[in-house]
Amino acid sequence: MGGVVGFFDSGVGGLSVWQAFVRLAPTVPTLYVADQAHVPYGPRPPGEIRRLAEGVVRFLRAQGAEVIVLASHTISAAALWPLREAFPEIPFVGIEPAVKPAVAHTRTGVIGVLGTYGTLNGPLMARVVERFAQGLRVIPQVCAGWVEQVEAGLLEGPEAEAGVRRHLEPVLRAGADVLVLACTHYTFLAPLIRRLAGPEVTLVDPAPAVARRAAEVLGASAGEGTPCHRFFTTGDAARFQEQLRRLIGWEGPVEALRWTRQEGLLALIPAGVDNS
Ligand code: DGL
């Protein structure tokens, strides 16, 4: 049974994967970094996401992570392959848009893929559509504003509903009967999406499958004892603590980090440390 698993996202989205993982492997210690100083990642150029991701990976490794889960489609699309090359000693688990499982569910032959600009316009998306969805109609829908909505805790209510409806309606009008959640933040909007889309539409959420893959890579099995979970943010620690409480019922402490440069590279250090 392996050691520590590091999770990384721009914000709270990856908590959906973290939560699925902890259910599967409740005794494995974890680290979670939310780069909330830069959320959303979706509209950022892949090169910038790669540099930030490398900084987070160096930090997670220094904290003892043995397996790193890119709990984000956007980060996986921009950085999974370059990270594997840059850190060949670390096993990475990434996420691709779950088009493959969606194919099994569609009766209309129309699949909506809901994600960020970076995910839907990257090579990973093109590859999964080509491999798994030949002959079907795949509609990539950039859901601008949903990440910010989840970060703000707007999961229900008239404002949340208007934001979700705006991007959902065109896809449903086009006849999609399967919707792929291709952004980990959207898992937290799933109850609202499900209600607005109706019972005829299937939602595909990749979080459980990614969690299973991470447990497999780690060789995790049910062990004894209470594990230690540490949560870090480059944003506001009190706000992140409140988000953890509301989204996953976590009541523990949060550690604040800030970005700096070390030997020309982006690096994360505890927010209280002055190395200027
Ligand atoms: N939750 C992430 C994803 O799965 C990142 C979204 C963002 O920061 O734009 O794509």
Largest sheet: 7 strands, mixed
Number of helices: 11
Provide the β-strand percentage band.
15-25%
- Rounded to an integer in angstroms, the radius of gyration calculated over CA atoms is 18 Å
Distance from first to last alpha carbon:
41 Å
**Largest sheet, spatial ordering of strands:** 4-3-1-2-9-10-11
Helix content, binned percent: 40-55%
Q: Which ligands appear in the coordinates?
A: D-glutamic acid
Q: Can you count the beta strands?
A: 11
Total number of distinct structural domains: 2
Write a structural description.
The protein has 276 residues and is of the alpha/beta class. The protein has two domains: 4-95 and 209-270, Rossmann fold; 99-205, 3-Layer(aba) Sandwich (Rossmann fold), CATH 3.40.50.1860. It is 41% helix and 21% strand. The strands form two sheets. It has a seven-stranded mixed β-sheet, with helices on both faces. Helix 1 links the parallel strand 1 (4-9) and strand 2. Helix 1 packs across helix 10 and helix 2 (46-62) crosses helix 3 (73-86). Residues 9-10, 13, 39-42, 72-74, 116, 119, 147, 183-185 line the site of D-glutamic acid (DGL). D-glutamic acid binds at residues 9-10, 13, 39-42, 72-74, 116, 119, 147, 183-185.
Key words describing this protein structure:
Rossmann fold, 4-stranded parallel sheet, binds D-glutamic acid, alpha/beta, 276 residues, 2 domains, 7-stranded mixed sheet
